[in-house]
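Structure (tokenized):
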């Protein structure tokens, strides 16, 4: 039986890989201000589980939401898009 649950996926840049099996990924988004119409850039840092410790600083990676792994980790690394 196939599940119809859609998994959230994000792309971002690795900014830290100092922790064991964990990377910090910077996610940037661009949106238009409701009143003034100016485009604003906002960013967020997420802790992502990297089970094989393959990601390096500066890599562009794809991550998916998963069950909570620890207090701050609820995303897992799917693949490295650019090294």
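Design, position by position:
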């Amino acid at each position: 039986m196939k599940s119809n649950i859609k998994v959230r996926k994000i792309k971002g840049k690795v900014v830290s890989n100092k922790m064991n099996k964990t990377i910090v990924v910077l996610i940037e988004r661009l949106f238009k201000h409701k009143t003034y119409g100016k485009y604003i850039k906002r960013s967020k840092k997420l802790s992502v589980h990297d089970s094989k410790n393959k990601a390096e600083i500066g890599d562009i990676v794809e991550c998916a939401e998963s069950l909570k792994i620890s207090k701050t980790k609820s995303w897992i690394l799917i693949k490295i898009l650019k090294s």
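Reviewer-requested clarification: The longest strand covers residues 22-32. The two ends are 37 Å apart (CA to CA).
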